[in-house]
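pinging the channel bc i need a second pair of eyes. not urgent but kinda urgent?? the chain im working w is below, pasted from the shared doc
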Amino acid sequence: MKPSNCSFLFTVLLCLALPGLAAERPNVVILYADDMGVADVSHGDSKAKIQTPNLDRLASGGMTFTDGHSSSGICTPSRFALLTGQHHWRRFHGIVGPFGGTVFEPDDFTIAKMFKKKGYRTGCFGKWHLGWNFDAIRKPGAKKGDPRAESYDWTKRFPDGPLDQGFDYYFGDGTINFPPYCWIEGDRFVTIPTKPVIKSRPLAGGGGFRAGPMAESWNPYDILPTITQKTVEWISKQKKDQPFFAYLAFNSPHYPIVPNKPYHGKSKAGYYGDFVIETDAMVGKVMNALKKHGFADNTLVVFSADNGPETHAFERLEEFKQWSSGKYRGVKRDVYEGGHRVPFIVKWPGKIKQGAVSDEVVSQVDLAATFAKIIGHPLRKNDAIDSYDLLPVLKGEKYDKPLRVATVQNTSPKKFALRQGDWVYINAPTGAAKKESSAYLEHFGLNAYGKGHEGLLFNLKEDQRQSDNLYAKYPERVKKMSELLQSYLDGKPCAPPESKKSIK
């Protein structure tokens, strides 16, 4: 037999011996919105004030989780939890401020590091908001966090960003409303911020910027289309014989609200709604790129958001009768459901039934263990300690009890929500970060909570709006849930080791 024929026969035998090998190493794309409410996706509802046809198509081709959650009610913590599979509150609570340092430690597990170890190409685009080492470019004598452009050497590389967390490539703006205002590629500045930020710049939907240096060419309206285009270009360069992982973190619909003119008036919920529609259009561009370059059939796509809508949701409720949190109470920063219950869609052709809907309670921390199982990566004892493998849910397998023991949400240091089944326990007098307006409470017929309440307990099956506090009625349940929460806060993993036994 000729050598060429031997090679051909070996290839055939390998394919027969390892059926579905390529399919078990799918490309993975995470599309991550910023401050987007669970009800901002139309899901085919023609009466919705915000129409999202591309997200609707994504949902119809995959699975929609009705009970999907971010780890926190604010930006940085949720992003950390998503990438590491561990809850942010084990290490920190707040966001990274302007010129803030990294939240990661050198030996941290991240899904990007995992994918890279398994031979994936990895790309990160858009909003990072997890810190860099700006001290590396700070000039001698300049104070830490100095907002002046002349205090930094913008020609130098600066570490502790996406490239140090497993990404081969990064392109983005850092954080839209935090300096420096410029484009970053890899670990270098593409545009040099030499001017102070112009606070008076007119914006479609309002919003402002923190003081700090700005590149002369920087334009907030360019961010959403540019990071999407960079993602599309990167996808176009990938090869069929090497899987890839892309993480596109949109700056939308976070403040400042800056939909581009072609999208003005496209919604019935003001400029915010228009910004959501533009975000949906960007989702469509990425999905079209996957299809165009032959990746669509072997790509797992996740769409979600870092937390619920900003407090301007109250204004939209009054003006447009549109409530971004849908059936739920709360907004960004709250531990009420609306602060962390977010859109959560997963599409994986050939693996997930089209149009599937799951009411399973899931968290973004679960993506780490799920991806690890899919690509055959063994998790160490301290890797992704809060992450559950979601494959049984995604594949529609039968199981006789909830996948998660419990789910924990947190924004501020001392206020936590623990979810178990239909029950939510909050270890504080209120789940709101700020006092709720009487108009809002009256609109939905909600009871006010605060002083005089030791804690809160709700049954979401009977009370989705979290208006009937059952804390005093069920002391034993409160005690058990409080003890479970404390065990997590004392260091117990939310995902017990047995939940990962199937990962070899």
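so The radius of gyration is 23 Å. and The first helix runs from residue 3 to 17. — does that match what u expected or am i reading it wrong
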